[in-house]
Amino acid sequence: MKKNIKLITINDVAVAAKVSTATVSRSINQPNTVSEALRKQISDVIKKLGYIPNAGARSLMLRRSGTIGVVVPTLDNAIFAQGLAEFQRQLNQSGYQLLVASSNYDPTIEATQIINLLTRGVEGIALFGTSQKRDALKLLKTRNIPYIHVGSLSAPFNGYASGFDNREAIKLGVKYLLCQGHKQFGILTGITANNDRANDRVVGALELLSKSRIHLKKEVIVECPYQLEEARLGFKKLLLSNPKITAIICGNDVLALGALLEAQKQGLHIPRDISIIGFDDLEISRHLLPSLTTIHIDAIGMWSSAANHLTAQINRVTSLPQKIKTNVNLIIRESTSKAPKC
Question: Is Transcription a UniProt keyword of this protein (predicted)?
Answer without folding.
Answer: yes
